[in-house]
Each structure stands twice: as C-alpha cells, then as structure tokens.
C-alpha cells in the first residue's frame, strides 16, 4: 500500500473507463455553473444538490472500478465520511442542549410571552433568550435563541420576522444534516446562502416584507 | 475589585486604564447613575455596534451590573455602575502604588513622601 502503487492502480483501472468518469465530473461542473447563474433560490438549491450528487456518483463509480485491494485512499474516504456523519448528526441532536447550558439561556416566554406563542403557530420549537447586549438570533436543534440585545433593538414586527426566519430553519432542520453531509462527501461547499434566502422569503410572508427589511437593516448594521 | 490588565501612562485621563469606549461608558454611568442601552448610546454618541460587546465585557469584568426590565411589552437592559468614581480612583491608586513599591521598595516610598510634600 504505497502512494505510487496506488496512483499506478488508478491509472491501470481507469484507463478504459476514464471518459465515462470524466463525463460525470464534467456534468457536475456544468451543473454547478448552472446553479450559479440561476436566479430563483429554490431552483439554485436543487441544481446545486444534483451537482453534488453527481460528484458523489462519480466518486462511487471510481471506487467501484478499482480492482486493487487495500486502497489507502478508499479507507481514508470512508473514515472521513464516517467521522463527518457522526459529527453532523451529533451536532443536530446535542447542539441546542449545549448552547442552553453555555449561554445560560432561559425560556423566552417568561420574559416576553407572545414570542413562544408566535413560534408555536409556525412550528414546534422552544424559544430561549440569553444575557448579552449584542443583538443575535440563531436556531439550533429544535430551539431558537435570541439575545436580550436583539429584544432591545427590534420592535414587535421586526422580531416576528426574525422568529419566522429561525422557525423556517427549524422546520427544515431535518433536511440540513443531509445537505451538509452531501456537501462534505462531494468535497463541495454547503448551500447556506440559498437556505438563508428561503428562510427570509418565509419570514417576509409571515411578518411582512417591511418588517423583515427593517430588521435586516438594523441587525446587519450591528453585524459587520 | 477593579481588574486592571493594561495601563498606558501616555494615554489621556481614564483611557490610561480603560479602552476609550469603556471609559466613555463608565463616565456616563458615573454621572447619570442608572441608564438604558439607548440612553448610553445617545449620551456617549457611540453606535450600538461598538457599545454592545463592550457592555457585555464590562458586566463580565464586574464594573457594571444590569437588570432586565419589561416596559410596555419591550425588554430593556438597565445598567448601573458597581463602583463610584471615588471607589474606582482609590482602587486604581492603591493598585499602582502597590506595584511601584513591589518594583522599587523603600525608594518608591521615599518618593511618595517627597511627592506629597511638594503638593
């Protein structure tokens, strides 16, 4: 199992199949390029995911065509996939509990009753607040976290826009680990911006475009 | 009680011991007593971007305390200084004199008495 032997092995095994495998890689590059051009975030997301799946298929085909046994790169790839899978799913399950402990977060319903009631109507998630003057909101697991700084800064409509945005993330949380998993396995970037855009669309439907816009404006000014 | 990690003798006034934003916040709190975040940004004329993180730090370091209030359905922080200006001045003076004595021993003490005679 040495590196030159392995490169040689790739050369030997792929010789006749090279056009086939490179066709897959070319296809995925074309798909990624298309996803960059597309305007609609939903379509862009879909194209990008298909591109990632194609890369994954190309990788799988390559390994299938390998006749050599005990390939180091094969083992490394499987170890990489196993570790990243464990990490991604553990993060999804335990991250919110960790954050509650670390931020000493408390149920937001106890400080501002309507926040929990509002989120209950959108999805099943707990809203927590934490002690910080820095305006911040994020979703983790099945929990939404907002800082007191954010509560100070935003009015009710703007806060609703932020909560709706985070609620969208939680609603679609079951999709996230698979998307990040796919991104890792295909060695590509994640689809974060597209997801953010969709969460914003949902928020503007729920709380109105004006509220979302002014909340974004205020918070973006706070986050440089 | 006051934690001084950095002293810059060449700086002006309170910024010898605090960052400019920390100094502005402390000065405002010493003159007004209790203040909300928006009152602080208004009084010091420093945008929330720069103030928010510093406020968290000041609270953590024990210079100020804050409580949350719910006024007309809106949540607010109300800040209060932990030490008065006099307490902070005496604490800082003691800290610095201690460090001078630690560095120069009797020589430092001799110079203190010379200094107070001159004054």
Strand content of chain A: 5-15%
Name the quaternary structure: heterodimer
| Computed structural class of chain B | alpha+beta
Strand order, sheet with most strands of chain B = 1-3-2
Order of helices and strands of chain B: HEHHEEHH
- Poorly predicted ranges of chain B (pLDDT <50, ≥5 residues)? none
3D shape of chain A = elongated
What coarse outline of chain B follows from CA principal-axis ratios?
Answer: elongated
Mean pLDDT of chain B comes to 87
Beta strand count of chain A: 4
Describe this structure in words.
The complex is a heterodimer of chains A (224) and B (119). With 224 residues, chain A is an alpha+beta fold. Chain A is built from ten helices and four strands, in the order ααααβαβββααααα. A four-stranded mixed sheet of chain A has the order 1-2-4-3. In chain A, helix 2 runs antiparallel to helix 3, helix 3 packs across helix 8 and helix 3 packs antiparallel against helix 9. The longest helix of chain A has 32 residues. Chain A is elongated. Chain A starts with a helix and ends with a helix. Chain B is of the alpha+beta class. Chain B has two domains: 82 residues, Arc Repressor Mutant, subunit A; 36 residues. Helices cover 57% and strands 15% of the residues of chain B. Chain B contains five helices and three strands. In chain B, strands 1-3-2 form a three-stranded antiparallel sheet. In chain B, strand 2 and strand 3 form a beta hairpin. In chain B, helix 4 packs across helix 5. The radius of gyration of chain B is 18 Å and the shape is elongated. The chains are: A alpha+beta (224), B alpha+beta (119). Chains A and B meet through helix 6 of A and helix 3, strand 2 and strand 3 of B.
């Amino acid at each position: 199992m040495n590196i030159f032997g392995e490169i040689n092995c790739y050369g030997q095994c792929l010789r006749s199949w090279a056009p086939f495998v490179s066709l897959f890689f070319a296809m995925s590059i074309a798909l990624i390029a298309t996803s960059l051009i597309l305007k609609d975030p939903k379509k862009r997301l879909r194209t990008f995911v298909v591109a990632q799946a194609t890369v994954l298929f190309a990788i799988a085909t390559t390994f299938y065509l390998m006749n050599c046994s005990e390939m180091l790169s094969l083992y490394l790839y499987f170890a990489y996939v196993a570790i990243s899978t464990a990490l991604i799913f553990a993060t999804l399950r335990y991250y919110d509990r960790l954050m509650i402990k670390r931020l000493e977060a408390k149920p937001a319903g106890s400080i501002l009753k309507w926040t929990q009631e509002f989120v209950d109507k959108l999805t099943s998630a707990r809203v927590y607040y934490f002690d910080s003057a820095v305006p911040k909101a994020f979703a983790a697991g099945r929990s939404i976290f907002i800082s007191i700084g954010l509560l100070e800064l935003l009015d009710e409509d703007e806060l609703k826009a932020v909560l709706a945005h985070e609620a969208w993330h939680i609603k679609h949380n079951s999709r996230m680990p698979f998307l990040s998993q796919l991104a890792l396995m295909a060695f590509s970037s994640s689809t974060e911006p597209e997801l953010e855009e969709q969460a914003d669309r949902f928020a503007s439907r729920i709380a109105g475009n004006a509220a979302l816009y002014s909340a974004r404006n205020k918070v973006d000014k706070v986050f440089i | 009680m006051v934690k001084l990690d950095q002293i810059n003798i060449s700086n002006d006034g309170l910024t010898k011991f605090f960052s400019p934003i920390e100094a502005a916040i402390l000065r405002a709190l010493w003159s007004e007593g209790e203040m909300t975040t928006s009152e602080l940004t208004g009084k010091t004329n420093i945008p929330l971007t720069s103030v928010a993180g510093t406020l968290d730090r000041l609270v953590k370091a024990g210079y100020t305390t804050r409580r949350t209030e719910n006024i007309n359905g809106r949540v607010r922080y109300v800040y209060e200084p932990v030490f008065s200006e006099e307490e902070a001045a005496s604490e800082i003076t003691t800290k610095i004199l201690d460090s001078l004595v630690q560095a120069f021993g009797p020589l430092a003490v001799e110079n203190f008495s010379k200094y107070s005679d001159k004054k």
